[in-house]
Amino acid sequence: MIFWNFVEQNRLEIAGLTLEHLWMVGISIVLAVAVGIPLGILITRKPALQRPVIAGANIIQTIPSLALFGFLLPAPWIGDRAGRLAVLALTLYALLPLIRNTYAGIKGVDHAVVEAARGMGLTDWQLLFKVELPLAASVILAGVRVAVVISVGLATIAAAIGAGGLGELIFRGLAMVNNNVILAGAIPAALMALAADTLLGWLEKRLAPQRAA
Amino acid sequence: MDSAAEAVIEFRDVSYRLPDGRPILRNLNLEAHRAEILVLLGRSGSGKTTALKLVNRLLELSDGEIRVEGRSAREWDVIQLRRHIGYVIQEIGLFPHFTVERNIGLVPAIENWPKERIARRVEELTKLVGLDSDVGSRYPHQLSGGQRQRVGVARALAADPPILLMDEPFGALDPLTRSDLQREFLALQRKLGKTVLFVTHDLHEALLLGTRIALLEEGRLVSLSSPAEFLRSPDPLVSKYVEAFGVPNGTRSLQDQLKRGHL
């Protein structure tokens, strides 16, 4: 009951922080998709780049998130605003699942289909856009789904550098030793992750290619 | 040059080596004449599929030259070359996310044919390869193996290429369906008069379909002859092949039957 009272009294702030959270995650996913999918495609065409690119994305993934936020703080322009910095960090974290799934999705397209397409005289672009990407779509979307769920969780830590979002309530609650405040941040974040996961999971199923009998 | 023996595809001293240097084809010299079915026969690893892929440049040869319609394959724009040559493979490789109609009409579509012309062509081809017209709106996974390979052939014929490359196209079908498709293909070829390079390891199929049979072994051309000559050939490798496939009388009678039936 006390929790609901707290939510009731602070609903405007909670709504505002939720929006801020959503905004941070949304922008960083759009950026990560814009970078990660082309990179994933690139490494299917230039095998020599495959190892370094995947390794690079892997290394970023292993940096503890709090440390990454801290590392980026002194960076020019980026470090000027906490919001920019948080978006950059979230983008970097979202890259790995996008690159990896794009690569795996395209490489997983039936070899015979690709050979038939090339043998028919499709150009590399036609092969990519008419055959490979449509057939890899569900795998790539699974990568987006993972990236979104990771980002929603990670974005709560962005509050530590003053970037706002639902993490602000969580950190405030921790400082105040007040579970109600923590929950007011954690529950909307969890719901957001669940909703995104469900929606993207549904899309993924719809995009799955027709299976051969 | 005699027009009946006009060389459409010429292999001139063609060699192909893997990146590690292992030779797959060695000094292959061979010509496919206009409107014939030239069968490349050989066991697994004999280099027959490689020879086929060198023609549409899915592989690039190491030495020698391949000429397609009098012009070196290297001089052709590779996309134009491939659209000039129909390609049918055993695994078919139909696009699982396209309906049968879109599968057949893909090359015309990327060649920017008008919609009505594509639709007419698809309908014509559907009939030509013996498919029911209601198949057009289905997806590949909803078809039987025989229907799928009919779609594969129709797709290869879509832009009316003068040349067909076929890599064991009927190899994965059950014997009855295979026999149906072989006969239908022969009848179709009599109508269309394409220049066909046909890869198979099946002697019966080679004898049935081939205008001439080229036997490959370890990347070399061992013999080149008509089906009738092939059966009589004294070459030890040829007779080994004939023996391995059992008494060829059945095949010979099959050939006779076919000739009576169709000529």
What features would you describe in this structure?
The complex is a heterodimer of chains A (213) and B (263). Chain A is an all-alpha fold. Chain A has helices at 2-9, 11-45, 47-62, 65-72, 82-107, 111-119, 124-154, 167-176, 179-207. Chain A contains nine helices and no strands. With 263 residues, chain B is of the alpha/beta class. Chain B has helices spanning 48-55, 78-83, 100-104, 106-110, 115-128, 145-157, 175-192, 203-209, 227-232, 236-244, 249-262; strands at residues 7-17, 23-33, 37-41, 63-68, 71-72, 85-89, 163-167, 195-200, 212-217, 220-225. In chain B, strand 4 (63-68) and strand 5 (71-72) form a beta hairpin. Chain A binds chain B through residues 110-123, 126, 130-131, 134-135, 209-213, and chain B through 56, 58, 79-83, 87, 89, 91-97, 106-107, 110, 139-142, 152, 155-156, 165.
Topology:
The complex is a heterodimer of chains A (213) and B (263).
Chain A: H1 2-9, H2 11-45, H3 47-62, H4 65-72, H5 82-107, H6 111-119, H7 124-154, H8 167-176, H9 179-207
Helix pairs in contact in A: 1-9, 2-3, 2-5, 2-7, 2-9, 3-5, 5-7, 6-7, 7-9, 8-9
Chain B: E1 7-17, E2 23-33, E3 37-41, H1 48-55, E4 63-68, E5 71-72, H2 78-83, E6 85-89, H3 100-104, H4 106-110, H5 115-128, H6 145-157, E7 163-167, H7 175-192, E8 195-200, H8 203-209, E9 212-217, E10 220-225, H9 227-232, H10 236-244, H11 249-262
- Give the end-to-end Cα distance of chain A, rounded to a whole number of Å: 55 Å
Give, in order, the helices and strands of chain B.
Answer: EEEHEEHEHHHHEHEHEEHHH
Beta strands of chain A, count: 0
Shape of chain B: globular
Strand content of chain B: 15-25%
Largest interface, per-chain counts?
A: A-B, 24 and 27 residues
- Largest β-sheet summary of chain A: none
Helix fraction of chain A, binned, reads: over 70%
Spans of chain A of 5+ residues with little confidence (pLDDT < 50)? none
Let me know the number of strands of chain B.
Answer: 10
Q: From N to C, what is the helix and strand string of chain A?
A: HHHHHHHHH
What fraction of the residues of chain A are assigned to beta strands by DSSP?
Answer: under 5%
* Strand order in the sheet with the most strands of chain B: 6-7-8-3-9-10
Count every helix of chain A, treating DSSP H or I runs of 4 or more residues as helices.
9
